[in-house]
Amino acid sequence: MACNKNHRYNPRFNALPFSEEFFNEPERWKCAGCAYDQGFSDARAGRPNNPRLDVLDQSQAGTVRHRNPIEAYNLGYSDGLIP
Ligand SMILES: [Zn+2]
Questions:
Q1: Would you place residue 27 in the very low, low, confident or very high pLDDT band (cuts 50, 70, 90)?
Q2: Residue whose C-alpha is closest to residue 31's, from 76, 83, 81
Q3: Whole-model pTM?
């Protein structure tokens, strides 16, 4: 499934590293914005840091294009820990 959320164009994700070679299909093109949201909500809910890329939508659009979804998850998780 392809992500069509506005977070695909969030300039914040320009800071994330690319993931051309670190992930195999189908994780390779996972939406970094969706990964960020998953990390954020996990932290807010008190769940452990545990990226689940298999449930995320894919995207090759905007600023999330080819960004590392694990890094995006961790960024969201860190933000979610901030009161
Ligand atoms: Zn997304």
A1: low
A2: 76
A3: 0.87
Q: How far is the CA of 74 from the centre of ligand 1 (A)?
A: 15
Cα 62 to middle of ligand 1, angstroms: 10
Residue 49's pLDDT is what? 98
- Tally of residues, the chain: 83
Ligand 1 centre and the CA of 9: distance in Å?
A: 10
Give the residue extent of every domain in the chain.
Answer: 17-81
What's the CA-to-centroid distance between 81 and ligand 1, angstroms? Answer: 21
